[in-house]
Description:
This protein is mainly beta. The protein is built from no helices and seven strands.
Amino acid sequence: MLELENANTNSFCMSMCCLRLRISESQLVGLALDAERGLLYYTDKVQGIIAEITTSGTDRRVIFNDRSKHPRAIVVDSYSR
């Protein structure tokens, strides 16, 4: 499970968005930030999911879920919209 908190210190900072990642019982192997839409996408190898969460940490949605697969990498293509 991935949780996000807005933070000013000890943060993962990209663009003008500062986040604190709190990870438990997961093995995140891919992260991609869609700064335009305020979404962080991630892959969890252990749980076999690809999910998105808002940069405010409020809404989390699993996009792909299959424990027999082990998603590793993810990228946001913001130019092809």
